[in-house]
Write a structure and sequence with these properties.
The complex is a heterodimer of chains A (346) and B (255).
Chain A lengths: L2 H32 L7 H13 L7 H36 L11 H15 L4 H26 L4 H26 L2 H11 L8 H20 L1 H6 L4 H6 L4 H23 L5 H13 L3 H25 L8 H23 L1
Helix pairs in contact in A: 1-3, 1-13, 2-3, 3-8, 3-11, 3-12, 3-13, 4-5, 4-6, 4-11, 5-6, 5-11, 8-11, 12-13, 12-14, 13-14
Chain B lengths: L2 E10 L2 E11 L4 E5 L6 H8 L7 E6 L2 E2 L5 H5 L2 E4 L11 H6 L14 H13 L15 H14 L4 E5 L7 H13 L3 E5 L3 H4 L4 E6 L2 E6 L1 H4 L2 H8 L1 E7 L6 E7 L3
Parallel strand pairs in B: 3-8, 3-9, 6-7, 7-8
Antiparallel strand pairs in B: 1-2, 1-4, 4-5, 9-10, 11-12
Helix pairs in contact in B: 4-5
The chains are: A mainly alpha (346), B alpha/beta (255).
């Protein structure tokens, strides 16, 4: 087969599979922009988007335009990036540690990111969006290393990893509370507690410029390593005998998973269960091979979190429920289902 | 592919698992590794495949040191079949064998028709083609072992390392596997427990306490004295009248 034929077939499959995905994502983003506390007609949303994207010049009420472009649009895009990023982090961790229950939330990575972000915010170690994200990355990396070392010291089994994750989460959540109690004033404390539960209401365009690049880097790296992740199916030694440079792949992939998780946590707080439930649901739909799983998980994660955000605005009229609460309400039963299915297989 | 190893060693903590092993295997030869449980056979196979960190000594393939090759280049030359490698992923038999093509694929060389043909050929070599769409979790131990061997063959290696490949197999598939291995146009190093099966290797190496204590043609290596001292069994050599092949009948030595 010639190179041209190969890339032709590749492009064709990309278009055939990619286009419906892009259409679903666009529909979800539109829904995220249209649905909310202030009901706005679909035509208004499209007009505002057209005005901003290609200067269409439609006449729109400036208040409506402001709600859509400065408030709902960045919020929806960040929700999509967070959903995709957290779900991809889940796939990476599940593949590399070969544990169905691995996910940034359960392994304490999110808790570590929260601690890092809060430490930077309160102690003023260098504020700003980048500073907070860097703090979150530091905390998340430290948390993962600690949990991995503890799991290894405890014998290295799948149960040990989950238990170590619980210990790590508890430790970092306690540290976060400690920092808040020690240094934050009452108003800061309330703001941080609300943010910790997952909160998209403060999201503006600068957050988008951090979330989308972090997701793009993570997505491209994951796509690059799809075959390596497949090769981990039978364990690290088997991956090595299939030609995978195990240590390098582990460092790079866990690095980008931590980067994505930390960025998303620093922007919207700690949102649980996306990294766990979305990958499992998608394995059910497209199978376990990562070449199909990675794009499917990114898409489903994005759509799921947009939907969760919309639900969080509608569940209680006049009030926004923290999005972490919505994902947990869906995710916890999903988690239970995975546990039961695993038991049946064992 | 010619394999040469010098002063190979590996320690787990303070305990030496393999000590100072030197070994040469000629191109196309089937070399059997035998020895009691815990004598270091599996570890030696991993050392030959360059899979263990902090190893002592050197392995050369056709004169080229393994340490000068990338993991991918090694995987194009050497395939390892481990004991009991399992997965919780919902892979099919064909998925699992396709993994064997990993070292030959890249972004610019994606999985193509030639790779699919190799996978089909390897599935049929181990008599698993009829189950190619079955889920891994539904396979028996012996079927899984045959899929692992097909995966290793799909790597198109020139050196095949097999860690007790006949475990879990029924007698028909044991004999079929050994015949397949003997017919392959590759160099094979195989750890075996069944000493009568080991008789079909070109040469045998005997491991004891991490050392290679004897090496040579089966009939020279497997003497009743050595079997008594290393394996702690009495052995009576018998001849099969059908083809005059030598085999052993074992009996317990009282302690």
């Amino acid at each position: 087969m010639t190179g041209a034929a190969v890339s032709g077939a590749f492009l064709e499959s990309l278009v055939r599979r990619g286009l419906p995905g892009v259409a679903v994502l666009a529909a979800a983003i539109l829904a995220g922009v249209v649905i909310g506390e202030t009901p706005l007609p679909f035509s208004t949303a499209v007009a505002v988007l057209a005005n901003h994207l290609w200067e269409a010049g439609h006449a729109v009420d400036p208040v409506d335009a402001g709600i859509i472009w400065h408030y709902r649009m960045p919020r929806t895009l960040v929700a999509a990036a967070c959903g995709a990023g957290l779900a991809l982090s889940g796939v990476v961790l599940q593949s590399l540690v070969r544990n169905a229950l691995a996910d940034p939330y359960l392994l304490g990575v999110s808790a570590g990111a929260s601690t890092g972000a809060v430490a930077v915010t309160i102690m003023g170690l260098g504020g700003g969006l980048i500073g907070i994200s860097a703090g979150a990355f530091g905390g998340a990396t430290l948390a993962f290393l600690l949990v991995a070392a503890l799991a290894r010291a405890a014998g290295g089994g799948p149960v040990q990893l989950v238990l170590a994750g619980i210990a790590g989460s508890q430790l970092f959540n306690a540290l976060t509370s400690f920092f808040i109690a020690k240094s934050a004033n009452a108003e800061q404390a309330r703001g941080i507690m609300f943010w910790l539960l997952g909160n998209l209401s403060g999201v503006r365009w600068p957050d988008v410029s951090l979330a989308l690049p972090a997701l793009a880097v993570g997505f491209v790296v994951c796509l690059w390593f799809v075959r390596a992740m497949d090769a981990f199916s039978f364990g690290a030694e088997s991956a090595a005998s299939l030609g995978v440079p195990v240590r390098r792949v582990q460092v790079v992939l866990i690095g980008v998973a931590t980067l994505m998780t930390a960025t998303m946590v620093s922007l919207v707080g700690s949102i649980g269960f996306v990294g766990l439930v979305i990958p499992h649901a998608m394995r059910f739909v497209v199978g376990p091979r990562h070449a199909r799983l990675i794009p499917a998980v990114a898409l489903a994660g994005a759509v799921f979190l947009i939907a969760a955000d919309v639900a969080s605005r509608l569940l209680i009229p006049g009030q926004v429920v923290p999005i972490g609460v919505v994902t947990a309400l869906v995710g916890a039963p999903g988690f239970a289902l995975i546990l039961v299915r695993n038991r049946r297989r064992a | 592919m010619r394999l040469a190893a010098t002063s190979l060693g590996w320690r787990a903590g303070s305990r030496a698992i393999v000590r100072d092993v030197a070994l040469e295997v000629a191109s196309g030869e089937v070399f059997g590794l035998i020895g009691p449980n815990g004598s270091g056979k599996s570890t030696l196979l991993r050392l030959l495949g360059g899979l263990l960190p902090h190893a002592c000594g050197e392995v050369r393939l056709d004169g080229q040191p393994l340490s000068a090759l990338s993991r991918r280049e090694i995987a194009r030359r050497i395939a390892l079949v481990e004991q009991q490698a399992d997965t919780a992923e919902a892979l099919t038999v064909r998925d699992a064998v396709e993994l064997g093509r990993t070292p030959w694929l890249s972004m610019l060389a994606p999985f193509g028709a030639a790779d699919a043909a190799i996978v089909t050929e390897c599935l049929s070599a181990v008599d698993m083609l009829h189950l190619e769409d079955s889920a891994w979790s539904t396979l028996s131990g012996g079927e899984r072992q045959r899929v692992h061997i097909a995966r290793a063959l799909a790597q198109r290696p020139r050196l095949l390392l097999l860690d007790e490949p006949t475990n879990h197999l029924d007698i028909h598939h044991q004999l079929a596997l050994l015949r397949l291995v003997n017919r392959l146009d590759v160099t094979v190093v195989v750890a075996l427990h069944d000493l009568n099966q080991a008789m079909s290797c070109d040469r045998l190496g005997v491991m004891e306490g991490g050392r290679l204590v004897a090496c040579g043609p089966p009939a020279e290596v497997l003497t009743p004295d050595r079997l008594a001292s290393i394996f702690r069994v009495g052995a009576t050599p018998l001849r099969d009248p059908a083809d005059d092949a030598m085999l052993f009948r074992f009996h317990c030595l009282e302690a």
